[in-house]
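User: As part of a screening pipeline, I want to sanity-check one entry by hand. Below is the sequence and the SMILES for zinc ion. Please return the complex as structure tokens so I can compare it with the automated output.
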Amino acid sequence: MTRSSDLPATAPPTPGRSRNMAAIKRRDTKPERAIRSLLHAAGKRYRVDVRLDLEGARPRPDILFTRAKVAVFVDGCFWHCCPEHGRQPGVNAGYWGPKLERNVARDRAADEALRAAGWTVVRVWEHEPRDEAAARIIATVEAAAAPDSSGKPK
Ligand SMILES: [Zn+2]
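Assistant: Here is the complex for your manual check:
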């Protein structure tokens, strides 16, 4: 039925592939949601997707505890080059290599800017067990909010 002259000159990506890419790109990723609900169940209040305007960077942490000044990022293994799953040699390295290096450089710049502004940064890999990641975040928030770290009574 379809005449070949109707097809675009450049073939679109296969449906399977574009569905994968959409899933990877979606901001509210599954591990992030799971961790948020664990934090919520633990009675922690947080904000999401707040862009901070800092000296040298404008990071947008995935989860933000504004009072304790703790910024949490849930990093995807591929996009942020996790040491265990980050490198996939052969997967168009010439195209992805520089992109991923820029991502990592941006991550480190964000960490520095946040710390310089008095924030505690917690980075969680998407491959980490959700409950362990949540426990780590909660411990960090509680330590940061502890009376002796700020010198103020609770
Ligand atoms: Zn990983």
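Points to compare against the pipeline: Residues 29-145 form a domain with the Endonuclease; Chain A fold (CATH 3.40.960.10). The radius of gyration is 20 Å.
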